[in-house]
Design goal:
The chain is α/β, with parallel strands linked by helices. The chain has helices at about 20-30, 60-70, 80-85, 90-100, 120-130, 135-145, 170-185, 190-195, 205-215, 240-265, 305-325, 325-365, 370-415, 420-430, and strands at about 5-10, 40-45, 75-80, 105-110, 155-160, 165-170, 220-225, 225-230, 275, 280-285, 295, 305, 430-435, 440-445, 455. A hairpin with a 6-residue loop joins strand 14 and strand 15 (about 455).
Length: about 450
């Protein structure tokens, strides 16, 4: 009996295009040395068919696909993503049972879609996520954005006769070309940081530079699992060889950039709050390597403070506080708080566990025909499970905090007060609750409220 390779595609509305799914299928066929015109290949497309609004038996081409499978005529099914087949968990499970029973090889062509597994439990798990509409939309459109971005620095998007092409913006072409050529000449981390600081028209944001340098679109290509594919609708600004030479060292320099940036970001000990509105203040700087200052996010312009000034006040408060208390007293205060919090979390953990067991028992005894009720119970059980895990994590953090008391004791026992920046950072995390910036002074609130300190701005 002749068996077929079936390509199934679906879009939910008439305004949507099947082009992305069809292109992905064509690339897959080319990867296995097929042109797509073979007699054994069958194309089934449900256009303007919503899997959310219509049940499986209301989607004509999906019904035809199922019929072919049950007639043992399908060897391989090629589809973009699982959500093209079904969005409903139970429908997806029913389809998966059919695939497994009739030994159909399923190939998903989306770049980030997990491959099909011949295990119902695992596929059911994937199908559960098919109901998360927001994530599906994001994932489904990701490939389209890479190949057909709505806009991209250096290009003008043109649509003619229902075809989209990208034309080079001549005003920005030289800037992009020089960016790639200059990057090719970078030899070490320091040169790379200097490269990022060079002012270029429209390109003064390092993150934007990274996006451009890592995007093969500028070479008229698109990255897939099998390599780089030509984008015929794109006029390249650079050649692929220039792009690949930069790409090979970009990851290394990006790590160096992150480390350097982290070093700058770690210069401030705490994030202060505006006294007037209570919001966390914004950290502003002239460039990514500037330590900067804090300003109110609600534009209370008179409330601002430099990072250096805030650090100085916080450091002074911490050191005076350490000198004013004994390690024994500190341990006693924190231990009492830990015991109290531990009791609260344990009680909440037991309540959550009880609710989880009750809902699980209800699920195990419910009528299988009550699918909507089962779905709600599954959601509730998952929510309780997540809550239980969060509570266990909080309890684990409390146990960790008990050990951190030893660290605090070690800090206090030094008494030389010659702490490193890392020591001060650790102390601020352990002892400082909140910092409020007023017009004339800064108020440092400690977790141990009886030891609050205020420092006036000079």
């Amino acid at each position: 009996m002749k068996k077929f390779e079936v390509i199934y595609t679906r879009v939910s509305s008439a305004a949507q295009s099947l082009e992305l799914q069809e292109t992905a299928a064509k690339r897959y066929l080319e990867s296995i040395d097929l042109s797509g015109d073979e007699e054994t290949i069958v194309y089934l497309s449900d256009h303007d068919v919503s899997a959310t609004k219509l049940k499986m038996d209301q989607r004509p081409k999906l019904v035809e696909l199922i019929s072919l499978i049950k007639e043992c005529k399908v060897e391989k099914l090629i589809v973009y993503k699982r959500d093209r087949l079904a969005r409903n968990f139970y429908e997806f499970v029913d389809l998966t049972k059919i695939f497994i029973k009739y030994n159909v090889e399923v190939v998903y062509t989306a770049s980030n879609e997990p491959p099909f597994k011949n295990k119902l439990a695992l596929e059911a798990f994937y199908g559960m996520f098919g109901q998360l509409e927001g994530e599906n939309i994001r994932t489904r459109t990701n490939d389209a954005r890479k190949q057909y971005p709505s806009r991209l620095f250096g290009y003008t998007r043109i649509k003619e006769d229902e075809q989209v092409r990208f034309q080079i913006n001549e005003d920005k072409k030289d800037v992009i070309l020089s960016l790639f050529e200059d990057f090719r000449n970078v030899q070490d981390g320091d040169q790379f940081l200097n490269f990022l600081m060079v002012k270029r028209k429209g390109l003064n944001n390092p993150e934007k530079l990274f996006r451009i340098l890592s995007n093969p679109f500028y070479a008229g290509h698109y990255e897939t699992k099998s390599g780089y594919q030509i984008l015929p609708h794109v006029t390249p600004i650079i050649d692929l060889d220039l792009f690949l030479k930069g790409k090979s060292k970009l990851d290394e320099y990006f790590s160096y950039y992150q480390e350097s940036l982290e070093g700058v970001n770690n210069q401030f000990l705490v994030l202060p709050n505006c006294e007037k509105c209570g919001n966390v203040m914004k950290h502003r700087r002239e460039n990514v390597f500037d330590v900067g200052n804090f300003v109110c996010s609600n534009n209370h312009k008179r409330l601002s403070i430099t990072v250096e000034e805030l650090n100085s006040l916080v450091k002074k408060t911490l050191l005076e506080h350490i000198q004013s208390i004994s390690a024994k007293h500190l341990k006693s205060i924190i231990s009492k708080r830990i015991i109290s919090e531990n009791k609260r979390l344990q009680k909440e953990l037991e309540v959550t566990k009880s609710e989880f067991l009750d809902n699980s028992l209800t699920l195990s005894t419910i009528d299988i025909k009550r699918k909507p009720a089962i779905a709600k119970l599954l959601d509730k059980i998952q929510s309780l499970k997540d809550k239980y895990n969060d509570l266990e994590q909080d309890l684990q953090s409390l146990r960790k905090l008990e050990n951190e008391i030893i660290e605090i004791h070690s800090f206090l026992s030094q008494l030389k007060l010659d702490f490193t920046q890392q020591d001060l950072q650790r102390l601020s995390e352990l002892l400082i609750d909140k910092v409020k910036v007023y017009e004339t002074y800064v108020h440092v609130e400690l977790f141990l409220s009886s030891y609050e300190k205020e420092e006036r701005v000079s």
